[in-house]
Amino acid sequence: MKTVKKKYGILSATIIILLIVVASTYCNSNKKEKTDILNGVIIDTAILEQTSMSMYNISTPNEIIRIFGSNLLVYSHEFPNKPSRAKMYLDSKTQALNIGVYMTDAAYLNLFDFTAEAFTYIDAIYTLSEEIKISHIYDKDLYKRLVDSMGNKDSLIHLSEDIFFSLFEKLVGSPRENMAALITIGSYIEIFYLSLESVGEYNPEHSFFSHIEDFYIMLEHVYIFAEHNTIDLNVESAFEYLKRIKVILDESEKKIIEKDTDSHEIETRRDISEEQFYRLKNEVLSIRKEIVGIR
After folding, report:
1. Distance (Å, rounded) from C-alpha 234 to C-alpha 216?
2. Which of 5, 98, 113, 197 registers the highest number of CB atoms within 10 A of its CB?
3. Is the pLDDT of residue 41 over 90?
4. What is the pLDDT of residues 228-264, one digit of tens each?
């Protein structure tokens, strides 16, 4: 499992399929402990040691969905954005944002074993990548292997992660880093959308409510990466989406809980009220409609 270094708190992470980007300047000094974002299990992240991704602590959508899994997410064919909409996206901002959306959706479909359907999303991702002139970053042989392995769930996961790292290494630190920021924003907003839609109505017993802190940290890391790229007008515009979500999560009540009195092990969690939950859900739904073009 590929993940990034922990900066503070435990970022829940896992799941998806290609993508996201993260980081901007490479720095391998001041190394920190590397842990699995949800359970604090120490893992090997040497593969990421040479990338600036570790600076921003951003996990791939693949990782995040794998961790949350069916404990939090429920399947509905109505949730993912339809690949047929890809042809509707005509400007580079919308095209990049929806590459991120489709990446998360592909991971979501693969989680529930709709692997063949997930491949149609990969095709939409490649098509949009051609539109914004970043398809050259994908290894043609790698793309062919993806097509040849259609229907193989494990192959889809491994190959898509390879594509993600190719995407990251070629865009971050280049003049096209703005595309990486937009893709990341789109992907993470889709993670919020799928999670909140899976919850349905307010229910503090739902596993989502035990992960508010994870979502908060996840958002903060994307927020930092995106803010670093707001010199680009398209990123500056999309950055407003993150601000609209963050202002609600900032209102959540943060608690420090002692899990074990002997070891003094503690955990941080956040609670949101019913009113805050519905505001968050409605805001994310509104943002997501703007991104995918649903009126």
Report:
1. 24
2. 98
3. no
4. 999 999 999 999 999 999 999 999 888 776 665 665 5
Which of these, 102, 59, 85, 267, lies nearest to 193 by C-alpha position? 102
Of 63, 44, 58, 17, residue with least CA distance to 158? 17
Identity at 8, one-letter amino acid code: Y
According to DSSP, residue 81 is labeled P
Confidence of residue 63 (pLDDT cuts 50, 70, 90): confident
Q: What is the pTM of this model?
A: 0.78
Closest by CA position to 212, among listed 285, 287, 277: 277
Domain chopping of the chain, boundaries? 66-292
Q: What are phi and psi of 172, to 5 degrees?
A: -70, 130
What would the two tokens of residue 286 be?
A: 């509104």
What is the distance between the alpha carbons of residues 62 and 107, in angstroms, rounded to a whole number? 6
Alpha-carbon distances of 209 from 115, 151, 202, rounded to whole Å? 29, 34, 9
DSSP run (H or E) holding 127: helix 115-131
Phi, psi of 5 (to 5 degrees): -75, 150
Q: How far apart are CA 64 and CA 53, in angstroms?
A: 15
